[in-house]
Amino acid sequence: MNPQFKKGVLEMIVLESVRNRDMYGYELVTEVSKVIDVNEGTIYPLLKRLTNEHYFETYLRESSEGPPRKYYHLTAAGILYRDRLVAEWEEFQKRVNLFLKERNV
Questions:
Q1: Strand arrangement of the beta sheet that strand 23-24 belongs to
Q2: pLDDT tens digits, residue range 30-79?
Q3: CATH topology of domain 3-103
Q4: At 96, is the secondary structure helix, strand, or coil?
Q5: Which of 58, 59, 9 is nearest to 35 (CA)?
Q6: What separation in angstroms does the CA of 54 have from each of 14, 18, 30, 72, 74?
């Protein structure tokens, strides 16, 4: 997949992944990788930035498999931001698809 395409939708996919349930970092890497190929070096800086921008809150939860894990919880601001990104994505996708359809007539 084109790296620029990935970069453009990564935030939206991360926010959407946490919308229904809190997740920890590696769990998010696994979830996002179902859609686009990413690694921890891509996800963790994004999570830090989104947390600094108050789209996520974090908390620690004990793990039976080692040290406590940092979980990410979507804030009200994060929900609004996610909604805005999805609306922009849908509009963008609609315009591109219309353009491509018109060119293929």
A1: 23-24, 66-74, 56-63
A2: 999 999 999 889 999 999 999 999 999 999 999 888 899 999 999 999 99
A3: Arc Repressor Mutant, subunit A (1.10.10)
A4: helix
A5: 9
A6: 14, 14, 23, 11, 9
Say how many CA atoms lie within 13 Å of 35 toward its Cβ: 15
Cβ-based neighbours of 57, under 8 Å, separated by 6 or more: 51, 72, 73, 75
Does 105 have pLDDT greater than 70? no
Using CA atoms, how far apart are residues 56 and 51, in angstroms rounded to an integer? 5
pTM of the model: 0.87
SS3 category, 58: strand
Residue 82 pLDDT class (50, 70, 90 cuts): very high
pLDDT at position 4 is: 76
Largest distance between two CA atoms of the chain: 58
What the block records as the tokens of 11 is 């935030």
